[in-house]
Amino acid sequence: DDDIFSSAFCENSEKLINVHLFALAAKYYSLPSLGVCTPLEDVLEALKGDSEGATGIKPDEFMNNKKSHEVQVMSELVDSIANYCGIKQVIDIGSGKGYLSSFLSMQYNLKVYGIDSSSSNTNGAHERNRKLKKHWRAYQSRGRENLKSQSLEKANDRPVESEIKCKMINEEHLNNANSLQNQGQAITQDLVPSCSFTEIAAPETSTETEGDLVSGTQSHETKLSEENLAILNVLPAGAVEDFSSSHSNCGELCEEEKVQRKMISLKTKAKQSSESNLYFPLTSCITAETELNDIITDLEDCMMVGLHTCGDLAANTLRIFTAKPQIKAVCSVGCCYHLLSEQFENQEECHDQVWGFPMCQYLKDKGWCCGRNARMSACLALERVAVGQMLPTESLFYRAVLQVIIEEIYGVTKSDRHVGKTFSKSSSFVDYVRQSLKKLELDDSKLTDGYIMDYYEKYKHRMNELEAFNMLKVVLAPCIEVLILLDRLCYLKEQENIAWSGLVKLFDPVKSPRCYAVIALKKQSCS
């Protein structure tokens, strides 16, 4: 308890005297130990009821492993929420190069608006989107040829088996349709004490669901080769539905089945022509006061998402969500905690400012403040360090000694300029210092190489101290992240129009350290 953990520090000097106890306390107050998160599997089960999730494509070919992992996991959740709420429009805040947006559009047929403040990111997203569509068309064309060839072979080899399969498919189609009618009611109510979806609109069976059913049954008709399966892994759902419905294995179809398939084929083609461009990158700076109608002219019922939204953008995403009736759900993964603005960090009164922290009234009433150093620590990755990905001690040492030089020689204690990734471009400590001084617009001619190296020699014996200090910061990082995430969750709990909100661990923290999503769904009555 708190009394036991407090003995990790000296009562008089307040210095740390028990590192082991300090580490235990940090673990005790981390999100996994507090038990406040809702498991991702439980959320997906509650959203989908008894239905089976769509087979996700593997985007490894179009992005690195980290981004592929993030996009694949988050897009499945976003699609499940969108289906549950009966919406087809998604707004991706801080969309960057459009990895998540384009994937949601092409794989799940969602209409996505990706908004980013950087025009270079938006232009890059446009170009990437164009290239992806070219890939998709190529895969689709190759897939049609392979499926056509294999379908003809199988039809010639096993005509009797095809007729039997056709009959089985018709029966299974009817059974699946009947079970789907009650699917909306089969929602898990008791994931955790606070997880209840009862006030949210249940999904209804639609013509699109019918299309999905037929597409699903057709997968039983053709046993695809390994090559075909690999192709299907990178096709959007609509493309698979289109060509698989055109090449059936059934030798003879009953008239009812023929009519059904013809109708679905027409609907699919009409839908694809009207939604040939489902992803729209836009450039705009998003604040808490942003009017989405000014940016998106055809704004309708939608959900808002953000994959690693930076600093205050994560907080503003939640504020916009609660304020705009059209936004029915939100799924936000924040990052860059060090860039959050804090209401109580400075003593200056700014009544009109909207702050990134704290958000909830509980912490506001207490005047809670983290401070930049604590927020910087929250960005560290404990799980990566735990598996051997150690901190860059040498670059941190360079940066620490540089700060001493700047303060003692130039009298500068604060600057709006940044050193950035100078260490990786430097050949030595002297080179690092000179490049950094130029970036900070300070005259490096004041210092000789020998004088610079004197500072290095003076402090190099303390490098172990620096490493130990940074390891303590890493251990404490999850506790500070907890405070920021719980503040956002509490803010949502304070709103009257929210049906359910929770924290969900989406990603493998070794692959993606900022792995927690803040998720919320509005009540049905709020429209």
From TrEMBL:
Protein's name in the database: MET25 protein
Superkingdom in the source lineage: Eukaryota
Domain Methyltransferase: 66-343
Pfam families: Methyltransf_32 (PF13679)
